[in-house]
Design brief:
Blueprint (H helix, E strand, L loop, with lengths): L24 H16 L14 E6 L2 E5 L3 E2 L2 E2 L3 E8 L3 H9 L4 H4 L3 E11 L2 E8 L8 E12 L1 H6 L13 E9 L11 E2 L1 E12 L14 E12 L6 H27 L7
Parallel strand pairs: 8-10
Antiparallel strand pairs: 1-2, 2-5, 3-4, 5-12, 6-7, 7-8, 8-9, 9-11, 11-12
This protein binds N-((E,2S,3R)-1,3-dihydroxyoctadec-4-EN-2-yl)hexanamide.
The site of N-((E,2S,3R)-1,3-dihydroxyoctadec-4-EN-2-yl)hexanamide (6CM) has 21 residues, from strand 7, strand 8, strand 11 and helix 5.
Length: 272
């Protein structure tokens, strides 16, 4: 990917194509915007998807993780929302690493295999992933589209957040949305097919502000990270094992992933 810098006074840029003829494109566009809206609502003011309020279950420094208990047809589908703030990386960098298939195994440790099964456009791929088996349940796989985009300030305003008017706008904002897709041509073979909707929303704040963009360093970068997920295990999985797994693994994932990004970019030019 070409390294880019931009003037902070420039309007934010939208990078997904204006149009795309793929049959999934209307769904990709709609769900990405919905997930962006949902993620940016404040935990304190809003219900978790499916109703009810968020319960804080892990906290470490700036990092806070919330969940809501939700069962669908007897299966644990607890929505999760995690918020974190880190310094030294931009929203673009944190989202780019999450989207890129090339580095997936560098930070994702739930995987046995990962394959890109379709390339919809430069910002959108379809993945087939086989996850490591968790005893005593059957092994799971997932098929999902993954879409990355920069959100411009007009889209942000049009997205109409009830609680955003009092908040400062970020200097830029990126989102990656992963959402399951039904693909009968990809057999689940020995696995149960799990379904998911996951979003990673990252906001860059230049803090302290710089008047001269050429003086921008990594010390000025503050990145607010919001990670939301809702996973349906797709078949029998003991509720207590699944909840214990999520409670242990999500905080570990968020810490490991953000540290991975910080370490990776620390001596590299800034990709705003
Ligand atoms: O969001 C994350 N990773 C993305 C890229 O891989 C993508 C994948 C999400 C699926 C995560 C599944 C985790 C659970 C796998 C085992 C399920 C076994 C069920 C049976 C248990 C009794 O969005 C990071 C995901 C981090 C998860 C901790």
């Amino acid at each position: 990917l070409k390294l880019r810098t931009m003037s902070l006074s420039q309007p934010l840029e939208v990078i997904p194509p204006e149009r795309c003829d793929h049959e999934l494109w209307p769904e990709i566009d709609r769900i990405t915007k919905e997930q962006l809206y949902y993620a940016r609502l404040e935990v304190e003011d809003t219900p978790a998807s499916g109703g009810g309020s968020w319960e804080l279950f892990a906290e470490d420094g700036e990092m806070r993780l919330y969940k809501r208990e939700l069962e669908i047809d007897g299966l644990v589908c607890d929505p999760l929302k995690a918020v974190h703030t880190v310094r030294g990386v931009s929203a673009h960098e944190v989202c780019h690493q999450f989207f890129s298939p090339d580095v997936r195994f560098d930070w994702e440790n739930t995987l046995e295999s990962m394959k890109v099964v379709e390339d919809i456009n430069p910002n959108t791929l379809i993945f087939h992933q086989i996850h490591k088996r968790v005893w005593p349940a059957a092994q799971r796989d997932t098929v999902f589209w993954s879409h990355i985009r920069r959100i411009d300030s007009n889209t942000l305003r049009a997205n109409g957040h009830p609680n955003s008017s009092s908040k400062p706008l970020p200097d830029n904002l990126w989102v990656v949305c992963n959402n399951s897709v039904q693909r009968n041509d990809i057999p689940a073979s020995r696995c149960l097919r799990m379904t998911l909707v996951v979003s990673l929303v990252c906001e860059t704040y230049i803090d302290p502000p710089v008047s001269d963009i050429s003086k921008l360093t990594r010390d000025h970068l503050k990145c607010k990270i919001i990670y939301c997920s809702k996973i349906n295990p797709g078949g029998w999985a003991p509720a207590s094992v699944l909840r214990a797994l999520y409670k242990r693994e999500y905080p570990k994932f968020l810490k490991r992933y953000t540290q991975y990004c910080i370490d990776l970019y620390k001596d590299k030019p800034i990709m705003l």
